[in-house]
Amino acid sequence: MDSGEILIKKSTMIRKNEQPIGDVYLVHKKPLGTGAYGVVSLCKHKVTGQERAVKKVAKKKIKNMDRFKQEITILQLLDHPNVLKLYEYFEDAKNVYLITELCTGGELFDRIIKEEYFTEKVAARIFK
């Protein structure tokens, strides 16, 4: 790399936002889904109006905070159209909030239960 070049990496663009999440996003009260570690809700950026998803993870449910932060680092580095995009994250005394792209296709698990099985071709189409 030339010493005059500027290197921009995806991981440097995804950061922990030090502001309270409520200052940046309007978080809808009705959850889109729930899981073992948290609740996913729709949120809207107050300045840009962009709709995204926010996963609220209670710190008390995180058994290994170092490992959890390592997973955030991995998401910061990933850039693939079939992998959920992480935009930024917030942290307060009780929770970590992961701001991701909004995926509206439904739960894959629900599709598997409904169909009972998938051929490889069907699974590839659903994943795409």
Question: Could you explain how this protein is built, in words?
Answer:
The structure is a single chain. The protein has 128 residues and is an alpha+beta fold. It is built from 5 helices and 6 strands; from the N terminus they run αβαβββαββαα. A 6-stranded mixed β-sheet has the order 1-5-6-4-3-2. A hairpin with a 5-residue loop joins strand 3 (38-45) and strand 4 (51-58). The longest helix is centred in the middle third of the chain and has 13 residues, at 65-77. The protein starts with 9 loop residues before the first helix and ends with a helix. The model has no long low-confidence stretch (mean pLDDT 85).
List descriptors.
single chain; 128 residues; alpha+beta; 5 helices; 6 strands; 31% strand
CA-atom Rg in angstroms: 17 Å
Mean pLDDT: 85
Largest sheet: 6 strands, mixed
Q: What overall form do the CA principal axes indicate?
A: globular
Low-confidence stretches: none
Relative helix content: 25-40%
